[in-house]
Amino acid sequence: MSFAELLASGDGSFVVPESWHQGRTAYGGFSSALTLAQAMHVGGDLPPLRSAQIAMMAPIFGEVQVSARVMREGRNATWIAAEITGDKGVGTAANFVFMRPVESSVAVDDVPPPTDLIAVDEARPFDNPNAPAFLRNHFDVRFARPRRDGRSADVCWWVRPKSSEGLDPALALLLTADGLPPAVMPMLSAYVPVSTMHWQVNLLTAAPQTQDGWWLLRSSADFARQGCSSQRMQLWNSDGEPVLAGTQSIALFG
């Protein structure tokens, strides 16, 4: 079931398909996009999405309910809060800011893509039968940088949703933007359970678009100690234009 088909199947109440799972819970981009879809539904005629804060507090699976409410509607921006709840209460809580462009004298653009980037047409496909269900079923993936000696807390892939038809561009983008494994995963010597705790996202354009559905995703860990990892996340379109920037806190259970 594609994400668009899932949205059409319910009105605030959904059953999470196992094809969207990442371990024992729904993939983080799935739950984030589900709250955004409900926020856009209750918000009506909204300005473009510009920022999101998403807390992933408990596993999301089985039958869930999604709710949203407008917190504040100002002259230029609207804040909307949304939640996903299941049998054990709230699993995901999100806050979204929708804001129309305003005149500004400030212009800063210092988010270049990697210098050793492999073009998407030349990149080697990612084909791992042990990859999470959501990745195998719903995304095309290619390695975006050359293989390196040793291990580093830096992951960079080309990622494309297999189906984004019928989705708002911002919704499809948020669905895709969490597609990488945590940046520290290459440094782990054995399987260690990991879990996202909090995700902060800033959209760098009011109209995200790319060619043939491909987005360039990169996650780089800044710090990891005592079971917590902090990472930076960046996303560019196929032309190398910055589209999204964020941070994420990851829990490491081992």
TrEMBL record:
<feature type="domain" description="Acyl-CoA thioesterase-like N-terminal HotDog">
    <location>
        <begin position="17"/>
        <end position="98"/>
    </location>
</feature>
<feature type="domain" description="Acyl-CoA thioesterase-like C-terminal">
    <location>
        <begin position="125"/>
        <end position="250"/>
    </location>
</feature>
<dbReference type="InterPro" id="IPR029069">
    <property type="entry name" value="HotDog_dom_sf"/>
</dbReference>
<dbReference type="InterPro" id="IPR042171">
    <property type="entry name" value="Acyl-CoA_hotdog"/>
</dbReference>
<dbReference type="Pfam" id="PF13622">
    <property type="entry name" value="4HBT_3"/>
</dbReference>
<dbReference type="InterPro" id="IPR049449">
    <property type="entry name" value="TesB_ACOT8-like_N"/>
</dbReference>
<dbReference type="Pfam" id="PF20789">
    <property type="entry name" value="4HBT_3C"/>
</dbReference>
<protein>
    <submittedName>
        <fullName>Acyl-CoA thioesterase</fullName>
    </submittedName>
</protein>
<dbReference type="InterPro" id="IPR049450">
    <property type="entry name" value="ACOT8-like_C"/>
</dbReference>
